[in-house]
Design a protein that fits this description.
Hypothetical protein yfbM fold, alpha+beta, single chain, 5 strands
């Protein structure tokens, strides 16, 4: 399960985020252990109400730390804006769908729906803060 943090930063800060052992000490953000580009793509498909799951993992990272990471990727603006628009009821409905996807099943990570809801709610708040600050949301991952 990857170590994952989402942080609010400028794209120019990607190297600093990547070089950080613990980005949350230097940047405002949230811990999201276990979230990866596949889960993020699945969330996007749910929010966009589409069967097409984008492959965010195929996007070139802003920073590539090698085979074990860390890697830093920018969360796509479209996903950030979709998350910002969600109200509490929509977050709950999306989290329920997200938690039922294969990526969260017992075959993989076995996340309870409450944890998916907590991560989605926190991520939506973080995205709103990033948009208000006119900054990006960067995803830092390491194995």
């Amino acid at each position: 399960m990857p170590l994952t943090d989402f942080v609010i930063a400028d794209g120019d800060d990607a190297r600093r985020v990547c070089d950080s052992v613990f980005p949350l000490e230097e940047f405002k953000g949230m811990d999201a252990k276990g979230i990866d580009p596949v889960k993020l793509g699945t969330l996007y498909a749910i929010l966009a109400d589409t069967e097409d799951v984008p492959d965010f993992a195929s996007d070139e990272p802003l920073c590539d730390g090698g085979e074990e990471g860390p890697w830093v990727m920018e969360v796509p603006t479209d996903l950030v804006l979709r998350l910002v628009k969600l109200d509490a009821t929509q977050i709950g409905a999306a989290a329920t769908k997200w938690a039922k996807t294969e990526e969260f099943s017992s075959e993989y990570d076995n996340w309870p729906p409450e944890l998916a809801h907590e991560v989605l709610s926190d991520l939506a708040k973080l995205c709103a803060q990033a948009v208000a600050a006119k900054k990006s949301v960067l995803m830092w991952m390491s194995l």
